[in-house]
Amino acid sequence: MTRFLVTGAAGFIGSALVRALAEHGEQVRGLDNLSTGKRENLAGAKVDFREADLNDFPAVADACRGVEYVLHQAALPSVPKSVADPLASNSAAPKNAPSAFRLAEALLCFPQQR
Asked: What angle do CA 92, 94, 96 make, to 5 degrees?
């Protein structure tokens, strides 16, 4: 059984990945700050869910512990929000890249898993 971490697990795509992996018998850990995702998207799914932001390094490092694969879906995803308020969306977009780097940094804490 393979162990996966899905970031953005409570979003539309992340929750679909969580369900598909769990239905195939994989162990799934989900991480989401619930800023745009919804906990109810994971209702009934067999997942070790952790509510945390990718900017919370200790929480991210803990979520990475023991996983073999990371499916990074966390982002600021809303096209309608970006159209309605492009200035705010563009000022928030730089958070996506640093969050991905923090995730990679957390994974480096567990070199035996690479």
From this structure: 90
C-alpha 64/C-alpha 53 separation (Å) is: 13
Task: Let me know: does 113 contact 67? Beta carbons within 8 Å.
Answer: yes
pLDDT in tens, 62-99: 999 999 999 999 877 667 877 787 666 655 445 666 77
pTM of the model: 0.81
Q: By three-state DSSP, how is residue 91 classified?
A: helix
Burial class (CB in 10 A: 0-12, 13-18, 19+), 34: middle
Query: How far, in Å, CA of 30 to CA of 73, rounded?
Result: 10
Domains delineated in the chain: 3-113 (3.40.50.720)
